[in-house]
Every structure is written in structure tokens, then in C-alpha cells.
Amino acid sequence: MAHRTSAQDVVKAIKDVDFPAGKDDLVQAADRSGAPQEVVKALRGIPPEQYANREEVARSVRTAPDSDLGTSPAQRAEQAREGGRPGQSQHLREVPKPPVEEELDR
């Protein structure tokens, strides 16, 4: 079975990056950290933007929908309703807290 890049793999590969950081900085940092080629390749595929933090990067990298972003079914439903950037997969969108979880946090 081929190795699939997960959000955790990506975050681990860029743990030493100072943010905000651009795509090239992220690719170079992953290369320097000895990250698997799949991770470096995934970072090469992200839009050439400035990223504010690791979470933004993790959401921009193409990962499997069942990756390890740790979202609840309610959060995934909110992702579906909220929409995202054009062409952004539903599972990579911002993860707002659903109203039920907001209520439970009070």
C-alpha cells in the first residue's frame, strides 16, 4: 500500500518554520527536516500564498478525506454548509464549531 500523506505528517515536517511563511519556505523546511518525499511533494502542490500558521498549511495540502484532522461529524457538516475557497475540498475548509458544541462550551 502506498504511503498517504496525512495532515500530521505535514505539520511534523514544518514544525521548525517561523510563520508567516510562503510556500517555498515550507517546501525547503520540509526538505531540511528529512520529511518523506510524499510530504515535500504535497507541499509543492499548495497555492503560492503566505500562510499564517501550521493549521492553514495543513488545510491547504491535499490529504485523504479520512486523514487525521480530528473533526467531529457535526464539524464536517458545518464545513459542508460554510463553503470555502473556490476549488477547496470540503474536508479542508475551516472547522467552525457547530451551534451544539458552542452551546456545550458555555
TrEMBL record:
Residues 42-106 are annotated as: Disordered. Pfam families: DUF2795. It comes from the Bacteria. Residues 91-106 have a biased composition (Basic and acidic residues). This is DUF2795 domain-containing protein. It comes from Streptomyces spiralis.
